[in-house]
Amino acid sequence: MTGFTPQPPRRKLRQTGIQAYLKTTRWRLTASYVGILLVVELIIGLFVGVLLHHQVVRDVEHVLQDHLPKEENHEWNEGHDHKHNTIPMPPIGDDRPAYEVGYYVVADKRWYTPYTSGVLPYQAGADRVSATGNPELQLITASDGTPFYVYSMPTFHDGTLTSIRQSAMDATLPLDVLRHFNMLLTTFIILASAAAVIGGYILAGRALRPIAQMAKRQQSFTADASHQLRTPLTVIRTTAELALGTDDPAEWRDALETAVAETHHMSRTVESLATLARMDYQEGAVKHSPFSVRDLVEEVAAHIEPVAREKGVIFHAPEVGEDRLVGDQHRIWQLLTVLLENAIKYTPEGGHVYFSYRQNGPEAVFTVRDTGIGIAREELPHIFDRFYRGSVVQKERIPGSGLGLSIAKEIAELHEGTIHVDSEVGVGTTFTVSLPIAGQKKSS
């Protein structure tokens, strides 16, 4: 006999309208996540940058204030040109963070400096200090390209501006600090944005996954229902149209009997589809509660025995002890009933159907074996697909919807169980259902 254990199906979703919409929505959500993160990053970066710049400027001002000339010193060299974009460097070996530049005498309109060489920078700031009377910090670039901070402080005597004192310091280090901060901030924003794109895309996918699954199930349910109901509706319509064209009461009766039979078939199909739909939407999730295996088996046997007698099939029910299971008793009853009804349906008159139970370690094992027509080896991987019916079944015109085994498989998986099938054409088929027993679950 050949054996087969169904695996969870892996189906590719077609790019339908709803899926394209979900994909577009996913990217929109991702863009929203990234946009919000960028705004937050920029606000925080701008705030920190402003604070850092303010702190650097304040520290520079404190240093330069401490190195202003203390008083006017007319022994210093007179600066002849104060309009060049250069500045005298401090003496070699001077390790001070800043140095005195000199002072500007307002009355004489002349600059004085302690250095014998070097030309003073153009002091537009000194003019503003003269006009406003307020100290000013300038960032200038010397002729050799070196940046400098120059601080100008007005001096008043009896309310009159008499001079403007200046000090300076190399601005390379403070500017490097600000430049490195900007580089780090830019790098952080780029990396954080890339992480936001990846993380946002994943999070958006997770958020939309239930909707995608719901759409998939809805499409599957609609396709299944239309496929399965199309044939009986066509039969009913065709039979009714033929009956309308005759006056023979016998043909009317035949038409009505056909319509009733097809209606019963549609009712069973709709009921099965509704069961699968509830399971798909998890409305049919199992309600775990302890119950007696003996009670379950007796209920299943009471339902199956009349069906077997009517078909002329010999049914063998098991003797069960006091074992208990935890699960949904009605769902498990439904699972076993599907398997037994199928076994009777595909077993010819005079054949046997064996129903057995045993405990195997942490599992409760139910077995349904028949001496029926069997299933071809190449068809075993498909028998749990919805609406699938084997070639022999179609050839023999055995009625059915092809949904029973799909329901049985869903119920087994809802109980963290498995269902396995062995079959040989012309010999029979055996279904084995393994479920966790009371208080125990199989390891994943």
UniProtKB/TrEMBL annotation:
Family matches, as Pfam families: HATPase_c, HisKA
EC number: 2.7.13.3
SMART domains given in the database record: HATPase_c, HisKA
Cellular component aspect of the GO annotation: plasma membrane
Catalytic reactions on record: ATP + protein L-histidine = ADP + protein N-phospho-L-histidine
Keywords: ATP-binding, Cell membrane, Kinase, Membrane, Nucleotide-binding, Phosphoprotein, Transferase, Transmembrane, Transmembrane helix, Two-component regulatory system
Keyword Ion transport in record: no
UniProt name for this protein: histidine kinase
Keyword Transmembrane helix appears in the UniProt entry: yes
Transmembrane segments: 31-52, 183-204
GO molecular function: ATP binding; phosphorelay sensor kinase activity
Residue ranges constituting the Histidine kinase domain according to the UniProt record: 224-439
Subcellular location: Cell membrane
